[in-house]
Automatic annotation (TrEMBL):
Gene3D superfamilies: Potassium Channel Kv1.1, Chain A (3.30.710.10). SUPFAM superfamilies: POZ domain. Residues 17-85 form the BTB domain. This is BTB domain-containing protein. CDD domains: BTB_POZ_ZBTB_KLHL-like (cd18186). SMART domains: BTB. It holds the Pfam family BTB. PROSITE patterns: BTB (PS50097). InterPro entries: BTB/POZ_dom, SKP1/BTB/POZ_sf.
Amino acid sequence: MIQNNEWSKRFRNHGEKDFKFIVGNESIEVHKFFLTLQSTVLSAMLENTNFKETQTGEMKIDGFKFETIKAVVGFCYGEDISSFMESTRNAIDLLMFAEMYDMDNLKDSIAEYYSTKLTKENVADIYKVSRETNAPKLRGVCFDFIYSIPKSERTAFVQANLDPAIHDLF
C-alpha cells in the first residue's frame, strides 16, 4: 500500500487545500487535484459547477468512518495506509468507498496488499466484498488463495465459508 510519490507528499504539506470531506463532526482537507486523479466520480463532480460540493468546496460523507476517509485521502497523497488495512473491516470499508467513487487504483492496491495477507479467517469476507465491489484483481487474489488450500481441505472450507452459488467454482 505504498505509492512512491514524494511530490504528492510534499504538496500535501504545502499549498492551500481546496476541498474538504466532512464526516460527522470531523473534517479533513485535501487538494481537489489529487482526488480527481484517483476517482472518476469525484472528478466529474468537481469539474461541474452545478454540484453543491463544487460550489461549497466541501462534501458531507455518510456511511463511512472518519478513519476510512482519512485513509482514502492518505492514499490519494501516496501515503502508506497498510496499517489501516490490517483490519479486514477497514479494507472492506475502503473497497466500498472505492466502488462508490470509482477508484480503481485503490481497488488494485488493496488487491496487491491482500495478495500476501489473506488467511482462512479473512478470505471469505474479502472474496464476498470483491464480488460486490467489482474488484476483479482482488477476486483473483482470493481465488488463488482458495486454490492454494489442499484439495482435501478446500471442499469443506468452501462449503463452510462461501456462498453456495459459487461452490462449483472450487
